[in-house]
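Batch 3, record 17
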Amino acid sequence: MSDIFSLEHADEKLKVLDAFIKEQNAEEEALISILHKAQELFGYLPSELQLYVSRKLNIPAAKVYGVVSFYSYFSQEKRGKYTINVCMGTACFVKGVEKVMHEFSDQLGVKPGGSTSDGLFTLKDVRCIGACGLAPVVMINDKVFGHVTTHDVARLISDYRAQEGSDS
Amino acid sequence: MTTQRTHIMVCGGTGCVSADSLEIVEKFKGALSDAGYSDEVGVIKTGCFGFCGQGPIVKIHPDNVFYVKVSPDDVAEIVGEHIIKGRTVQRLLYQEPETQKKLPKHDEMSFYKKQYRIALRNCGLINPEDINEYIAFNGYEALGKALTEYTPDKVIEIMKASGLRGRGGGGFSTGLKWELTRKTVSDQKYVICNADEGDPGAFMDRSILEGDPHSVLEAMALAGYAIGAQEGIIYIRAEYPLAIKRLEVAIAQAREYGLLGKQIFETNFSFDIKIKLGAGAFVCGEETALIHSVEGNRGEPTKKPPYPAVEGYNRKPTVVNNVETLANVAPIILKGAEWFSSIGTEKSKGTKVFALAGKVNNVGLVEVPMGTTLREIIYDIGGGIIGGKKFKAVQTGGPSGGVITTLDLDTPIDYESLRAIGSMMGSGGMIVMDEDDCMVNIAKFYLEFTQDESCGKCTPCRLGTKRMFEILDKITKGEGTMDDITKLRTLGKTVKESALCGLGQTAPNPILSTLEYFYDEYLAHIQDKRCPAGACKALAKYKIIEEKCIGCTACARVCPVSCISGAPKQKHVIDEEKCIACGACYTACKFQAVLRP
Amino acid sequence: MAVKTLEELKRIREEQIRKVKLRESGESDDQTIEILVGMATCGIAAGSREVLNEFVALITQNGIEHIKVVQVGCMGYCHSEPTVQVNMPGHEPTIYGNVDKAFVSDILEKHIKDGQILDDHVLIKTYHSAL
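Prediction for the assembled complex:
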């Protein structure tokens, strides 16, 4: 077992999650909404958190795992503070997003799906985020960047690193 | 404020600029100043009118007269006749090809009739977070009219007569879907809005939800009234946070106004709507899979029948409509079936929104009547191909569709015609591709998508898409054999016929369609080990043309793997073994001496 | 406030239509100028939020009256985001593309104050929202 429940504020987060679960009427049907909430609170869905949800809802853990593993939005791995989502939609593909992905991968030293060792960045490919007019598109957490070229990659990474430096 | 009685608008779009429109602007300014009209008449360079085929375009305001193919030599005549004497220059008017009629007013021209906004009617016009603005543009009037004046049967009758068909791709009659759901006897029924826009390259649903959320809510209430449901669910992708927020605001406002909730318009009809988030699975666009996902399960499809109209959400009759379909409903109820069915082709009525993207100048959302041709969309509205490159194909229908080539550019688009040429309407993504795009690589891109998104429930799709992807991958690496083409064809046919749901049944389309229209590109990859478009990295080999090389060393200096040899002022050579085909030398060479593979 | 009858709905519409008819016909009862900023995902990503904030800041700062800034959805001109539509009473709406913070003050100073159309950024100038 990893120690997600011993993290800072874990108790408060669990309380928020419990309250949310209580609000849902048909509990089994609300599984996906509850998992969304849990991921929003904890950042990812490790197996002990899945088990926690399954016990709360009184449904088999296998079912929870089945749902978590089915949907690409749910992550079972701890993610970096900033998730770099590189859009792999058709419009971005045609506009050469593959090169941008390679550049991110090279500069961060991780493969798509991986996270940097400092826990700052996770590199991910996503299906179309619907901003095709700006292709190629990269979304870092909730912020969308359009017309990204390989030349922009270093600047984006260093901007976020600098932000981190000034935060701490 | 200065007041100018007339504005001369000269198109400053790329197409017109290349056809001397800037010179025309200068000439106008000169001619006006000579005539002493500079203060009264302004010359304005506008953005693209989108009518590039007839450029340069000049439009006179407020007379609303539209001149086409204007040359700098025509300026004097326009100023002398039109501006000073107030007489239209007939010679320069647009002549409609079919009728040979000269049309002075631009809104009479077929081109400007080309875009016609029904689903997008309020997008960009109203504040989506203010219900009052929606009401100002006739919002909720259709609901009020239906509840107080029409029976549910009458609503269904109007929908059927309008000819509206599902805009999510399938093209099933919306009225008929509602009727089937109405006919099923049950104590509880549901309306689900499918906002799980999964086609990579389509974004019209997001735009409608972000720009005009109330139009979807109103239509869902109308559907609820028609089929006898009291509950509506919007199933939306979690990747669309802004659309979700706008929907939440809209639902709260509609409840506050009593337009959702109990006894709407003081009738016995009650209806409310909740939002359910998807979690990223393309297959959830399929209605049975979507329903399972709403129920909190893995989004796997089930066999039809039973159709959702009979047994859907919570095993109750359910109607599932896509966002764009719903956005058409209120105008149909207000303006009538006849109005709607007067637009479009014989079997496909109304308009369709296309998300125009890829290698086209004016990327954007366009809404055109059914029956508009691809050429009109790509060249007249889209402004042609970026950088004046050669058009190769347009992909419609996303991972379920196929490619359309120059051969079919003039085919009027509707559900049937697209299917006949091996593609499909899909949700309306339209990706334009030019000479630099490799068709084998595009097919591989889509198969990589479908094999990844395949839910794994049925074998033909789970294994079939994977194997097809592997074969395509092999071909793009130059390891393919002629036998692979036969395999792709048989496998494609098998998957098409035997997969459980729409995702699998349509997954081979990108392969079958590129095989049909771009067979020679497959051959080049397999027999010549060459990628004609230069997109497949493994096959790309760059060469230096000896006659053109002057030995400037520019290429050798940028080569990241130092595979270019040659002394200054001597011919350079690329070591093909070491070359990683990055293309840096091609870009660096100022003498076009590097030959792209 | 609940809307109970179709008549009540129509009454709200009559009230509201005065506020928005500028967008359709160029008429306005109280001569208010409207600035519509496209605020869909694409627009925001291209910087429309900064543009909207800049409008509000400059309008407040300069005490410009009879003007309001409205956020709207996607206008469809994805190739030229952020897009801004200026509606002045008695004039056809003008849609500007590729608007940035610096251009905002130009719109306020030159277009709104002096009635000068800023050619370089004009996308289209018409009542026909389709184009």
